[in-house]
Amino acid sequence: xxxxxxxxxxxxxxxxxxxxxxxxxxxxxxxxxxxxxxxxxxxxxxxxxxxxxxxxxxxxxxxxxxxxxxxxxxxxxxxxxxxxxxxxxxxxxxxxxxxxxxxxxxxxxxxxxxxxxxxxxxxxxxxxxxxxxxxxxxxxxxxxxxxxxxxxxxxxxxxxxxxxxxxxxxxxxxxxxxxxxxxxxxxxxxxxxxxxxxxxxxxxxxxxxxxxxxxxxxxxxxxxxxxxxxxxxxxxxxxx
Length: 240
Description:
This protein is an alpha/beta fold. The chain is 43% helix and 21% strand. It is built from 8 helices and 7 strands, in the order H-H-E-H-E-H-E-E-H-E-E-H-E-H-H. Strands 1, 2, 3, 4, 5, 6 and 7 form a 7-stranded mixed beta sheet that branches. Helix 5 packs across helix 6. The two termini are 39 Å apart.
């Protein structure tokens, strides 16, 4: 601002005649005004973007969101995954995703929170994370040479209110598996933190004959659907 005032004084000193002096005064006032406005703009802090939180410790979900160009924090929900008696698979996945998102959004009311839950359905049985190596072996034998359903439900919440929620389905067909292949896979330790006792993005990808629907959904997050829902909530992925 001092530079603007000095320039004004110099113009007034150099001005010759009434018209020149008036023009110099107008220019002076404009210069001072612009200088003040620049100072005001500089003093206003930039608006921060809305914080995005993933209410899941799943490395696969983190990888998918990161690959989509989103910046986020990870906060576990600590919600117990307990199915109610007779609860349908879609309702169960949707309830879990909603409860996870709401729980974290209450703790961080200013943030947008994404919660998700993935379950595998084979025949009439819901296959969650295996409770033991024998349970994982049982699941893999059941899945071999059959088509099963993978449901990943996601929910978006803010301040305890659910803004968006949706269950997404994919159908996965396994090729036939020998007991030896199953034993080798169990020995890797990969199946034990995954619904249905397998990870399509990991060593079990060789078990897959075909996938109908989103492969990301089978991994644990229907990326395209989540990105579209977040955009409606004011969160946009960074352009590459």
